[in-house]
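Batch manifest, entry 17 of 40.
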Amino acid sequence: MKQNYTVTGMTCSACSAHVEKAVRKVEGVESVNVNLLGGSMQIVGEADPQTVLRAVSDAGYGASLQGEKGGAAAKEAVPSAQEELKHMKRRFVFSLCFLIPLFYLSMGHMMGLPIPAFFHGQENAMNFALAQFLLTLPILYLNDKYYKVGFKTLFKGAPNMDSLIALGSAAAMVYGLVALFQIGWGMGHGDWVRVDRWRMDLYFESAGMILTLITLGKFLETRSKGRTGEAIARLIGLAPKTAIIRRGDREEEIPIEEVRVGDLVVVKPGASVPVDGQVVEGSSSVDESALTGESIPVEKGPGDRVISASINRSGSFVLAASRVGEDTTLSQMIALVEEASASKAPIAKLADRVSGVFVPVVIAISLVTAAVWLLTGHSVEMALTSAVAVLVISCPCALGLATPVAIMVGTGKGAENGVLFKSAEALETLHTVNTVVLDKTGTVTQGRPAVTDLVSGEGVTPEELLCIAASLEKPSEHPLADAIVEEAKEKNIPLAPVTDFLAVHGRGVRGTIQGEDYLAGNLAFLEENGIQPGDFVQKADQLSEEGKTSLYFAGSGEILGLIAVSDPVKPTSAQAIRELEEMGVDVVLLTGDNRRTAAAVGRGLGIQTVVAEVLPQDKQAQVKRFQAEGKKVAMVGDGINDAPALVQADVGLAIGAGTDVAIESADVVLMKSDLRDAVTAIRLSRAVIRNIKQNLFWAFFYNAIGIPLAAGVFYAALKWQLNPMFAAAAMSLSSVTVVSNALRLRFFKGAAGPIIKEESSGKKETIQKEERKGDSNSMEKKILIEGMMCGHCQSHVEKALNALEGVSAVVDLEKKTATVTGTLPEDGVLKKAVEDAGYTVTEIQ
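Output type: structure tokens
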């Protein structure tokens, strides 16, 4: 059982460490994870919530129980964070208003600036001291949070960063007050030497400067940290607030929370889809880019699934709600991203251990520093300067922020690219992967059979062959038959009725069309019926070498032709595999398909290691074998029959999850069915871990140099002694530096570049948009073309269109389209060029 809490009062990693330590002692708590950035805590176990709240309170912090889902909490967190930022800015501005005259008064005479006469000389020493004291008091009042939280946690035995600030600035104030009394004593007793000595050692400006600079640093840090959650905020912002429900003959707009499963939801042009569901009426073009990263709108019609927060670009449609509330794809995405952001990567454990003891150790170093300076015969002023500087310069925040800010930005950036990490551990582990095992069907290939080649006999046109084949296969239930029927449907070829249909198991089908007997099947079926295949056997063997399955068609005792069907490779697979290899990752193709088909696919994609004829239950053993060889393995599959292998792998990536973003067996969920997202996931993991290492190095390096410098270690050799004011500025800068470095991850870009697509002819076609920068007349249009059957047709159309001045054309044989860009002529000119090449234009978009 998971319980989510909101924790208040945490200001640094020491705070989160103390909260974790306190809650871990509660009976029934199996594990606890405190998120400093989000101000949240997640507990796994059967602990009593009231006992947990009491443990947090006893540790010196506030807590309240959230709902079980993170989405609502995130929505509430956004305005409170903005409110905190405004309050912090106000504190800083007002503190600065008092700090400027305080600093001018205390330091102006050293810079040659004019100071009013009633502050000059020994006789005005009390005026000089009291004015500084009174200017410091408002700064202390404005920043009293450091004292309230700092001393509270200190007295409870769990000091944090606020404790260091409170001790440092309070020490400076106490020293200033002692100086004030010394001045008063000296003036009352005529001890002007005492007055002279103490009026220049007030330290009020140090206390004011420390508090103001720390507040400035906190403001900049909070503002930067707010940007780390922009991806989650954008996801939350995608959710529509209302939905239009059809009830009988009327439409009613209701809050999104009131939509129930089965409700008929009306989605109008330009509107956001409020819930997941299935289209029951109408059709439209839907933009899912905000969720999946897929930039091209998807056509939706009756029976198609639509996901919440996608945008309806054109027509209206009605959907039947299937997932509502916290079960929608958007809500699950938000929950996954928040959970991953809140989780801790193994690399953070060292920083957490250090943060847990950091503040007590720093306080001890500060006391030792003061004692050493005094025991070596130096002045109280020098001892206090060094002790306060040690307290102020020490920064547990930089250590605590090094990992979580990078994790939060990284997981958010992944969500923007359709890559959902379920935990920070998965994000970290992925950067060590050196072997990627790919399932073939649905991962590398489309996952459904499609017609790739039409080879017609003498006197038979390809259209006639397809008409007879689709008509004959229509009554069949074989998967290859569906591919042929779908091909005829795409080409708008009408089907003829079939009588006396008969399916012969292991052979094929036969039937009568308009009084003529036809049959379709394998070579053995033809030979059994006394039909000679002729040269088609050689062509079938050639296609078989390419991993394609050939079906023979015959009528009236003669061969009519053959149709080759295969599970085509996705257009993006070759590029993804090439990029993985360029990254130094070994690629393995793992499939239950036969060796010849698997070898053909592997050969076409340049994959060296192909493991074929593996049953689903044996895929796990294959992954284990690679791991036994010392390899770090990532498994990419569809998350269904690959579940055991996904669990066995060091990192499991479920591809093409679509609406099912909560696949249990996967560590990473890829929203789109695009293998390039696996490349994006690995690149992002490497970028995040590199960023974390930079942050940790800076945090450790800063403290390793800063604390000895403040303590005066370098004073004997170099006469370096750090002023507490500069220590405060350095401490603020260190946190801002870490957060700013993590924010660089916002500029991460996913796998990009042209798509390399393997055609049956063996040629590679680069599909890309030609960006004509600086050409304001550059346009793009899509031409729908009928009659293209093979790679030669494709090249004919491309050649015809590219011959037009200012036109760049790319033809997609599978989609029967040509995309033209550049300074385009009239539609009639484009149409004529295609038709002159021997093909038909059905539409220009």
